[in-house]
C-alpha cells in the first residue's frame, strides 16, 4: 500500500504554516547545531553546501489528509549534520528551530533515531528547483517516515536534547510522534 490510511492524493503542493513566510537572505543564513553534544557548531550557506548531498525520493503525507507522491528533495543528510556535532550519549531527541513570523522561533520535536534515518535531509532543492519561499526557502527539514509537519521550513537550528518536549504544533494539539501509517495525527 502506497498511501497511508485517511489520505487523498494531490498533484499540487499545498502550502501550510502558521503566520507569514519569513524572508531569508542567503548571505546571513546560518544553521546552528547545539545542545547535548561535544562539538556544537554553526555553518553559513557556503559551508553547508560543501557537505555531502543526496537526492531523496519520498512521499509527502500531510496531517490534513493530502499526500503528494514522488517528490525528489536534494539536501544534506541529517545524519552527517548530527555526527559532526558528536552528540553525547544522553542525546535522545532533537528540536528543530526555524525562523518564522511573527513567532520568531518555530519548533518541532522528533526522536533522534528517527531524525537520523538515511533518507532524512535538510533539503534546499525540490524536483531540481530551489524551494519556494512558501515551502521553506532556503532550507527545510525532511523526515519522510513521519507526517510532513515534522520537518521545519526555514530551518535555522537543530538542538540535541535528553528529553522530548512539544514543539509549536505539538503544543497546539498535534501528536508528539506523528507516524502517518498508524494515524498519529492529534494528541486527543
Ligand atoms: N517553520 C515552519 N515550518 C513548518 C510549519 C510552520 O508553521 N512553520 N508548519 C508545518 C506543517 S503543519 C506542515 S503541514 C508543513 C507544510 O509544508 P508545505 O507548506 O511546504 O506543504 O510544514 C511544516 N513546517
Ligand atoms: Mo500541517
The portion of residues forming beta strands comes to 25-35%
How confident overall, as mean pLDDT? 96
In CATH, the homologous superfamily goes by the name Oxidoreductase, molybdopterin-binding domain
Coarse shape: globular
**Compounds present?**
the ligand Nc1nc2c(c(=O)[nH]1)N[C@H]1C(S)=C(S)[C@@H](COP(=O)(O)O)O[C@H]1N2, molybdenum atom
User: How many domains in all?
Assistant: 1
Largest sheet: 6 strands, mixed
In CATH, the topology is named: Sulfite Oxidase, Chain A, domain 2
Task: Describe the 3D structure.
With 188 residues, the protein is mainly beta. It has one domain (25-174): Oxidoreductase, molybdopterin-binding domain (Sulfite Oxidase, Chain A, domain 2, Alpha-Beta Complex). It has helices at 45-49, 78-85, 112-115, 168-171; strands spanning 8-9, 30-35, 41-44, 54-61, 66-77, 93-98, 106-111, 121-126, 129-130, 140-142, 155-161. Strand 2 and strand 3 form a beta hairpin. It starts with 7 loop residues before the first strand and ends in a 17-residue tail after the last helix. The mean pLDDT is 96. The protein binds ligand MTE and molybdenum atom. Molybdenum atom binds next to loops.
Amino acid at each position: 500500500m502506497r498511501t497511508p490510511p485517511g489520505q487523498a492524493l494531490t498533484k499540487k503542493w499545498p502550502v501550510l504554516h502558521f503566520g507569514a513566510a519569513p524572508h531569508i537572505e542567503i548571505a546571513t543564513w546560518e544553521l546552528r547545531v547545539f545542545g547535548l553534544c561535544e562539538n556544537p557548531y554553526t555553518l553559513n550557506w557556503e559551508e553547508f553546501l560543501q557537505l555531502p548531498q543526496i537526492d531523496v525520493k519520498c512521499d509527502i503525507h500531510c496531517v490534513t489528509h493530502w499526500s503528494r507522491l514522488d517528490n525528489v528533495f536534494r539536501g544534506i543528510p541529517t545524519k552527517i549534520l548530527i555526527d559532526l556535532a558528536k552528540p553525547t550519549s544522553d542525546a535522545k531527541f532533537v528540536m528543530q528551530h526555524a525562523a518564522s513570523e511573527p513567532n520568531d522561533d518555530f519548533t518541532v520535536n522528533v526522536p533522534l533515531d528517527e531524525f537520523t534515518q538515511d533518507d532524512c535531509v535538510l533539503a534546499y532543492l525540490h524536483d531540481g528547483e530551489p524551494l519556494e519561499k512558501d515551502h521553506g526557502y532556503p532550507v527545510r527539514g525532511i523526515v519522510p517516515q513521519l507526517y510532513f509537519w515534522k520537518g521545519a521550513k526555514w530551518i535555522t537550528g537543530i538542538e540535541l536534547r535528553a528529553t522530548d518536549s512539544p514543539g509549536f504544533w505539538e503544543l497546539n494539539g498535534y501528536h508528539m510522534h506523528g507516524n502517518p501509517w498508524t494515524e498519529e495525527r492529534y494528541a486527543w
